[in-house]
Amino acid sequence: MKVPRVTLDQWRTLQAVIDHGGFAQAAEMLHRSQSSVSYTVARMQEQLGVPLLRIDGRKAVLTDAGEVLLRRSRQLVHQAGQLEDLAHHMEQRLGMLAEPYEKGLAGKLTKLSRALTVTGLGLSALGQRRPWLRRVAGASYSAGSLALRFAVFEAGKESARDPKYVVVPQRERIRAREEEARRQGSGTVSV
To answer: Which of 46, 47, 48, 52 is nearest to 65 (CA)?
Structure first.
C-alpha cells in the first residue's frame, strides 16, 4: 500500500482557505500564521504535482483539478472524523472493561504507545526529505506498536485476575437477553 504524501491537516488547511475566502482568513480560523497556511498549501501542491489554486487578483481560486480533489478531500476528512468518533465510542462503550487498559502497568504502556505513535507521526511529517528522520519515525511507530501489544497482554492478565471483569459483563449480557425475551413474549432464555 502506498504511503500518502499529503496529510489530513494539509487537506483541512486547503478547505479552510476556500471556505473562508483566503489565506489570511484561513490562518485566523486555524490559529496559525498566514505564512504557515501559504507554505502548507504550496507544499501540498508540490507533493501532489498538481496546481490546486491559481491567484485571480487578490483571491485564490481553485483550478479544475483543485475542485475535484477538494470535493474528494472533504469526504476523506469527514470519514477520518467518523473513524475517530467510532474509536471514541468504542472506548466509551467498553466502560468497565476498559479499566485494565488505563491502570497499572497496562495503563502506563498504553500511554507510552500513544506517545510513541504521535512522535512517529510528527517525525514522519518532519522527515519528508530526511531519510534518517523517517527511520527514527519508523522506529517510534514500531516501539509504539510493541508497547501496545504488551499493554494488551498486561490488561488481559489483570482482567483474568479480577472476576469483576468477567462476571459482571456476563451478568449484564444475561439480563439483556432476559429483557429481550420478556419483550418478545418468550419465557426461555438461551445462555
So the answer is: 52
| Percent of the chain residues topping a pLDDT of 70 | 88
Rg (CA), the chain: 24
- In 3D space, the residue among 41, 3, 8 whose CA is nearest the CA of residue 22 turns out to be 41
* Cell numbers standing for residue 9: 491537516
Give backbone dihedrals phi and psi of 53, rounded to 5 degrees, phi first.
-125, 150
d(CA 37, CA 7): 14
- Positive or negative torsion for Cα 14, 18, 22, 25: negative
Q: Which residue has the cell 479499566?
A: 99
Between CA 170 and CA 150 the distance in angstroms is 26
Dist CA 178 CA 187 (whole Å): 8
Task: Please state whether the predicted TM-score (pTM) of the whole model is above 0.70.
Answer: no
Q: What is the pLDDT of residues 10-69, one digit of tens each?
A: 999 999 999 998 899 999 999 999 999 999 999 999 999 999 998 888 788 899 999 999
Q: Count CB neighbours of 57 within 10 A.
A: 6
Q: Using CA atoms, how far apart are residues 87 and 84, in angstroms rounded to an integer? A: 5
